[in-house]
Amino acid sequence: MKKHNFSAGPCILPQEVMVKASEAVIELDDIGLSLIEISHRSKEFVAIMEEARSLALELLGLEGKGYQALFLQGGASTQFITVAYNLLESKAGYVNTGTWSDKAIKEARLFGEIIEVASSKDKNYNYIPKGYGIANDLDYLHLTSNNTIFGTQIKEFPTTQVPLVCDMSSDIFSRQLDFTKFDLIYAGAQKNMGPAGTTLIVVKEDLLGNVSRKIPSMLDYQVHIGKDSMFNTPPVFAVYVSLLTMRWLKDMGGIPTIEEINEKKANLLYSEIDLNPMFQGFAKTEDRSHMNATFTLADESVKDTFDAMWKEAGINGLNGHRSVGGYRASMYNALTLESVGVLVDVMSDLERKG
Ligand SMILES: *Cc1c(COP(=O)(O)O)cnc(C)c1O
C-alpha cells in the first residue's frame, strides 16, 4: 500500500502522473519507442518541451507578458550562481530567511556586493522579516518565497523599484500570487513539480543582457532562450514528468483550485498543532508555511511512542531537518487532505494516550 508521504523533497507526486510517467519509459504515446531513448530533437520531444514551457507560463498567468520559461539542469543551487552571473553588475539585495537564502547569498558574493537587506537568523529563522527598506540602486532584490527547512512563507511580497528575483522551489504552483511582480522566478522541480533533475526558470526577457561580464554559454539565460531551452541535451524525463504534473494541475482547475485544497490541509494540521498540548509549532503563526509545517513535541519523553505511532499509520518523511529538530510535515500539491487527516488522527491519539 502507498504510504502517506510527507517527505520534504524529493517528494510526493500525483499517482496518475507516476503511472503515465512509468508507461512513457516503456513506450511514449504509441510511437514504438521509449521517452528516454528518443532524440531530444525528435518532433515528439520538441512538442513536450514546448508544451512544458508554455504551460508553466499559462499556469502562472504570464503568457504574452514578456516572460520566457526554461527547464535547465543543475538544481536550484545552480540558479544561486546563474542569477548573479546574469543580473549582478555591482550590488544586489538579499533577504536572508534560512539555509537556502544563506546559500544563495554566499554564491552571489562571488560576483559583487551583497547587501543583506533583512535577516531572521536571530531567531533561527522562525519568522519572515518585514518592513525593511530597499535601496533603489540595487541590481535586484532576491527573496525565498517558502523556507522549506524552517517552515516559514512570505505572505505579502514587497513592492520594489528594483527587479524582484524569487526562489520559489518549494511553493511554486501552490498558491495564487501576482506573478507579474516578479522579474525572475526559479524553482527546482523536486518539491512541487516533478522529479529531481530540472529547474524551472521564468524570466522577463528585458532584464537580460545588462551585465558587462562575459557569461559562459551554459550559465547564460539568453543562450538558453535562443535555443528554446535545448542548448544542450535537456533532462528529458524530468521535463516530461514536470509537464504531466502541470497538466494534472491544469485539469483540476489550476492554481486557484490547488490553493483552496492546500489551505484546507494547512488549516487542518495547524489547528491540531495549536489545540493539542502535546505539540508546539516552530514558525511564527502569521508566517507559517502552507507547504512545510514545522513542530516539536512539548515533552520529548514521548518521542519514541509518537514515532512508532505515525510509522504504524503508514506515514513517511516526518522527521524535521537537523537545524530545527522535531518534525516537519511537507504538504505539497500532490499530498491529499486524507493523508493530513491520518497525521492529525495520530496526533490526537497521542494526546488521548497522554
Ligand atoms: C530544495 C531547495 C533548494 C535546493 O534545490 P536543489 O535543486 O537541490 O539545488 C533551493 N531553494 C529552496 C527553497 C529549496 O527548498
UniProtKB/TrEMBL annotation:
Homodimer. This is Phosphoserine aminotransferase. Residues 5-340 form the Aminotransferase class V domain. Gene3D superfamilies: Aspartate Aminotransferase, domain 1, Type I PLP-dependent aspartate aminotransferase-like (Major domain). Its cofactor is pyridoxal 5'-phosphate. Keywords: Amino-acid biosynthesis, Aminotransferase, Cytoplasm, Pyridoxal phosphate, Pyridoxine biosynthesis, Serine biosynthesis, Transferase. It comes from Poritiphilus flavus. Binds 1 pyridoxal phosphate per subunit. The modification N6-(pyridoxal phosphate)lysine is found at K191. Transmembrane segments: none annotated. Pathway: Cofactor biosynthesis; pyridoxine 5'-phosphate biosynthesis; pyridoxine 5'-phosphate from D-erythrose 4-phosphate: step 3/5; Amino-acid biosynthesis; L-serine biosynthesis; L-serine from 3-phospho-D-glycerate: step 2/3.
